[in-house]
Amino acid sequence: MYGACRIDYPADRARTAAASACLATLWSVTLNGAPVALDRFVVAERADLGLRGLAGFIDLRGLTPGPQTLEVVWRPRPQTDPPLDDFLPDRQANAIPFVWSPSN
């Protein structure tokens, strides 16, 4: 959304929904245990480190100030995935603690 102008195309909504559903089979994101929608996340890569992950923004305005925990899980349901035949772990979970302190 740019300023007050918003262009909304049904085909774009359908593609976004399909991409989000696909992404949710590979990743899950929770904030304080509550699921975070992945519709505004994109796959990202740090080529210099050889790492892939997600990039996105999470709206924190509704949170109370204080400690929070963001959890990002790669392969949240490994039992539903085809077996891996390499060195990759079945599931990778990363908890990211932070303190939310909004300014007025």
Question: Could you walk me through the main structural features you see in this protein, from its secondary elements to its overall organization?
Answer:
The chain contains one helix and six strands. With 104 residues, the chain is an alpha+beta fold. The strands form two sheets. Strands 2-1-5-6 form a four-stranded antiparallel beta sheet. It has a two-stranded antiparallel ribbon with strand order 3-4. It starts with 9 loop residues before the first helix and ends with a strand. The mean pLDDT is 82.
Summarize the structure.
The chain has 104 residues and is α+β, with helices and mostly antiparallel strands.
Key terms for this structure?
104 residues, alpha+beta, two-stranded antiparallel sheet, globular
Q: How large, in whole angstroms, is the Cα Rg?
A: 16 Å
Q: Please list the strands of the largest sheet in the order they lie side by side.
A: 2-1-5-6
Order of helices and strands: HEEEEEE
Low-confidence stretches: none
The biggest sheet, with number of strands, parallel, antiparallel or mixed sense and barrel status, is: 4 strands, antiparallel
Blueprint of the fold:
Layout (H helix, E strand, L loop, with lengths): L9 H17 E5 L2 E2 L6 E5 L4 E5 L10 E9 L17 E9 L4
Antiparallel strand pairs: 1-2, 1-5, 3-4, 5-6
